[in-house]
# Entry
Amino acid sequence: MTTADDTATPDAPETAEAQAARLGKRRKLLRILLIVVATIAAAWGIWYFLTQAGRVSTDNAYVGADSATVTALVSGPVKAVRVSGTQAVKKGDILVILDDADQRLAVADAEAALRQARQRYGQADATAGAARARVAARGAEISQAQARLRDADATVERARAELARRESIAGTGAVSGEELTAARAALKQAQAARDLAAAGVTSAQATRGSASGDLGAAEAVVRGTTIDTAPDVAAAQARLDKARLDLERTVIRAPVDGIVTNRQVQVGQRIAAGAPIMVVVPIDTAYVDANFKESQFRRIRIGQPVELTSDYYGGDVVYRGKVVGIAGGTGAAFSLIPAQNATGNWVKVVQRLPVRIALDAAQLRKHPLRVGLSMEATIDTRGDD
# Structure
């Protein structure tokens, strides 16, 4: 007796047609896969060629700015501090006020010294005027003395003539001895008067010489100057200007627009001239220093466009910048202890060179950055193709 299991036939072997169909299906799937892979590769190649070829990137980039260190230009106790750290300020805003009592006293003292210098100049000018008047008076005295000398000369000539006339007729008895003696005495008296007049001329001339010397000394003080250009007055004016400038400097103002950082001053603190009290960071003029590998510099040029992103805002904010400069040396070259490769165990290390990138001012105003933030920078070098 037989059963159903005994009568079942074994699986029939796969026919050649079925094997060929299955193999063809595999080949078709493989071709489709190859086509898809090739298409993706071609698309990626086109995308890379169009967008990434000729671009060099680095994430070793940091935001910088030419920060302004605020220092006290005069010493004194702090009277008031008008700003706090992280506060935005405009150029000219008051930051700190110092006690100005000493500076006000210095201004008052300098003003008094200026008035005194002007007074001395006025006295010197008046002295010169008086000396000129004395010289003129001495000149008049000389003229009077010379006139008296001429009169004395004339008197001597008359006396001599009278004596000669009397002596010529003395032998005739017409002239007495007494008259002759009187004529001789009159001549001597006239000669003495002439000598006295000549001495008066000499004395007047000497007096005028002394007055001329006094005039020269007085005029030397004021010659070629005015009350505003006299040396003593100008020096006093300079001291007054300095005192007023020191008074103005007791009010310390922001040198640039920016953010107050690193404030180191408190009310009541006495600060010395030249001491730094805070830093104002001009974030509106921030830039980026990107450190590219030396192997990336083959096509980097000044003026090339740059795209930058920061974790501060994320990848949605893309900054547009421009290469404005390339450093003159690597960071290692200017480090405190430069690397010394003149040893036997030298190993080449790829160096990085800073590239200065200027940012768009409008973007900085819309999305301000902070000094020290890290950036990712990509330079488009395709413009040199």
In short: The radius of gyration is 54 Å. The helical segments are 4-7, 16-52, 101-169, 177-222, 231-248, 361-366. Residues 103-244 form a domain with the Helix Hairpins fold (CATH 1.10.287). Confidence is low (pLDDT under 50) at residues 1-10.
